Amino acid sequence: MRRSLHKLFLPALLLLTLATSAQTPYFFPKNTGSLNPAIPTPEQFLGYPIGTQITRYDRMVAYFQELARLSDRVHVEIIGQTYEHRPLVMASFTSPANYANRETIRQSNLKRATTTGGDEAPLVIQIGANVHGNEASGGESTLLTAYYLAASESDETKKWLNDMLIFVEPVLNPDGRDRFANWANMHKSDVGTADPADREHNEIWPGGRMNHYWFDPNRDWFLCAHPEAQAHVAWFHQWMPYVVVDHHEMGTNSTFYFDPGKYSSNNPVVPAYLYDTIYPAFGNYFSRAMNGIGSLYFTKETFDKLYPGYGSSYVNFYGGAGFLFEQASSRGFVQETTTIPITYAFTVRNQVTAALTTIRASLTEKPMLLKLRRDFFQSAAAQARQSATKAYVFGDPADQTRTNAFVNLLRRHKIDTYELDRDLTIGDQTFRKGGAFVVPTEQPNYLMVRSAFEDQITYSDSLFYDASTWSLMQSFGLLSAELTAQTGKGKSALTLPLGKAVTAPLVTTAPAVERSSYAYLLTATDYNTYQAIYALQSGGAFVKTSFKPFRAPVGNASRTFGYGTLVVPVQQQTLTPDSLFRLVSRVSTQAGVAVQGVETGFSTQGIDLGSSSVRTLRRPEAAMVVGPGISPYEAGEVWHLLDRRVQMPITKLELGSVLRANLNRYNTLIMVSGVYPTDKALVDKIKAWVQGGGTLITLKTASEWVIKQGLSKEKLVLADTTRPATRYNYDEATNYEGAKALGGSIFRADLDLSNPIGFGFTNRRVSLFKNSQTILMPGKSPYNTVAQYAEKPLVGGYVHPSVLKRVAKSAAILTTGDGAGRIILFADNPNFRASWYGTNKLFLNALFFGGVLTVPSIEGDE
């Protein structure tokens, strides 16, 4: 009956919506007043009413540029570019006088954080939308918000423009938006198809949510792995807006969300004034506005402000207020709900209402925002003075690339960082001058320093919308220590800062290669080792790797070379010695990896270079299974890692094509998390390929699939399904069961450095990020467990005691052999969000060294 009523109601609803949405009063407040007729409406410029098309990004940019051409209130700048070469646009709306004085206003705005005065300067706020590409109503709404600010002649709007600089970033993820816009527009029906099963409402994999490499850009403001976040964060620190708005969408059967959020999930690092005063005050404005148009809404549920990498939370760590709007999505133009169908125009109207209300509230509550920022930085300074930790010291001289990447990320967040100007021992760790850095805690952005370096923050909730820990120090896997003001064992009292401030991006360099007539050696410790291997192999060189350490004469000295050292013989090559030298020199310069020339294969200690323990690597010819049912995030992380950092191609092989594909053209197959079929033909084909010499690398649930389908004899640690007799209230189910989910925590593991998967690591103790309950038993063979979780493994984040018990002493990485091939099983995702540089190396070792890995058999093994 419900479907029949919907079908009868739909045509009338569409006619009413399109008729009203064609008129701007549908979207704007009742007291809008006159609108400048010289400024075209979005409908006049685009040729269709808002709500009847998903506007392509290039047309949105063109409209903003037209407003800038016609109005002296509007100016447009390009702040960056996406992977697909779309411009990242930021528009400003203010009076001509303010715009002419914008640099003075900007400087005054930056100084307000630490000085008194300047309160009369215009208030800076920023409205952003569409960071998730298929959450289109927010982006569409910016067209109307921009029109209103450019055309409105009301006294209120003029006051906004005189007293504020309003920045609008119409689309934070243009690549994703256009992917969705093309999909929805190409499947749109003239009469509207509200059936949720219609193709219009169901994008093909991977969908428009993500950026080009299938990453979630709304998790990247803290990690800055991609150009969208890099541009946004750079702009943010140029202007330091007091308010940042982030427009989103959620499930079709929901309503509208605005802050305040779930109180127990607020970040305890941020002063409570934001949560206790600012959010409730602004919430009153939003509720009145939504009441005025009759839209349902909710607050104080579901969404948190914990993670500093959301668009609506990043500003909170710099003394501002971030606001999240979540609109129920039509995911197209009209879609059935549990009540009446929801139209795209309706979703856009709610977003416009929220944006204009934010502007109104921000100016009215300007004194509150000024107090928030001043109190924030005063509180941060007081916390820093009271902290026992006075600085963090870190660095890895054997991995300049990884160290430099971390320093450059800290710089993006305006975290003061200094070069270590002396050798320093803290406890049992020694940091060398020229290879380590210092971050003092007494600096303006102390709260972001805490977020970047602390392992464990205490929370008042056990339910998490996302990861419960995000220590950048752990994700980069660098040697680090805390420096305190106390003296004693493991403590040092030093005057800070310790050296020269880092003021420019660090670039990885390598010394010039000295020509050799015998062999070139590269240690496997640097992050760019894999880029170097692939470039050498692609250039025609044979590259070997050492399965045992040795000492070799280099110049007038003897040097130790560890597990995984790369050996490039000068002879036994198809290249001439001259061509090889040019290739090695070019690769060393481009990758920033040091290369040592040696003139003898006779080692002073350990194996010689002609030993059978020095094995020839095969160049990876890799394919990765992708498609419906498979995690686009994890697939995108692999694609991005290889394409951007290793500069190596990978074939993205559709799951539905695996049975037809010639797998023999690949020597490596990668399977990330997903729901894989149990089809016997598929299992048999992959098994035969492995037995023929292939290397299968699996992550998380793909590792479970391998075990359950009998491709590996390893076992899983299963959850205890015994149900206690205890009764709980129905409404407590979410809290009790949700607390058992593993949103993302950091665990300690022991790594076998002699296994090829551990090549290039210098410390057996490694940190791993875990956000799933794929838990592997230690290997059947004592040699198969490459990495094993500690008995007390938790480093940071929340984990339910029952889950922690299962993780303890479980296997993090297993290897298993089958015929001439091998399977490398990861319990977790070593490539998480392109930020886990430390564990990227485990995955890359599997890719580059897995082909020469032989899995030892034990007596009695079948």
Strand order of the largest sheet: 25-24-26-27-32-31-30-28-29
Main beta sheet strand tally, sense and closure: 9 strands, mixed
Radius of gyration: 29 Å
Distance between the termini: 62 Å
Overall number of structural domains: 4
Judging by the overall fold, what is the CATH architecture of the largest domain?
3-Layer(aba) Sandwich
Contiguous helical run count: 23
Structure description:
The structure is a single chain. The chain is an alpha+beta fold and 862 residues long. The protein folds into four domains: 2-379, Aminopeptidase, CATH 3.40.630; 387-484, Alpha-Beta Plaits (2-Layer Sandwich), CATH 3.30.70; 519-616, no CATH class; 622-720 and 727-852, Class I glutamine amidotransferase (GATase) domain (Rossmann fold, 3-Layer(aba) Sandwich). It has a nine-stranded mixed beta sheet with strand order 25-24-26-27-32-31-30-28-29, sandwiched between helices. Helix 3 runs parallel beside helix 6, helix 10 packs across helix 11 and helix 16 packs antiparallel against helix 17 (577-591). The protein is globular, with a radius of gyration of 29 Å. Residues 1-6, 18-22 and 487-492 have low confidence and may be disordered.
